[in-house]
Task: structure prediction
Amino acid sequence: MVPAAFVSLVSIPLSTNGKVDRRALARMDVRITSGQDYVAPRNDTEKQLVEIWAELLNLAPEKIGVNDNFFELGGHSLLAVTLIERMRERGLHANLQASFTAPTLAKLAAVVASGASGASGESADIVAAGALTDLEREAALDPAIVLRTEGTLGEMNNVF
Result:
């Protein structure tokens, strides 16, 4: 795991016995910012994404601009899954990969607007995946699995 931020301190707070005062460290006010100039949301999709990001990242909505990066603001892969689910609840459709390939709010809003990874594309993938056996589905996700695995088809199905 990589820390969300590195904080430079003039001195580390110490307790009376010379050890690090962890309570004093916890009380310090550390603000994570992306370093980008603030640009307000320009359309309804961006406004909805700002609301979702603010809720997930525990940030004030007015601190999140369209050029901010989800991961630089403290997001991580598990929050990205929650992000995609919250987006779907609001009718904004994108796949999980989009949160990594388009990590800024503006880029993610563009993916949602384009419909490139919208509900119609995803449902087609789900139907196609449902028609595959377990082995074929795993091979579709990672073709190298088939190349590294020995055994008959029946044995493969037992593995997956």
In short: The chain has two domains: 22-117, 122-159. Residues 80 and 99 are 7 Å apart (CA to CA).
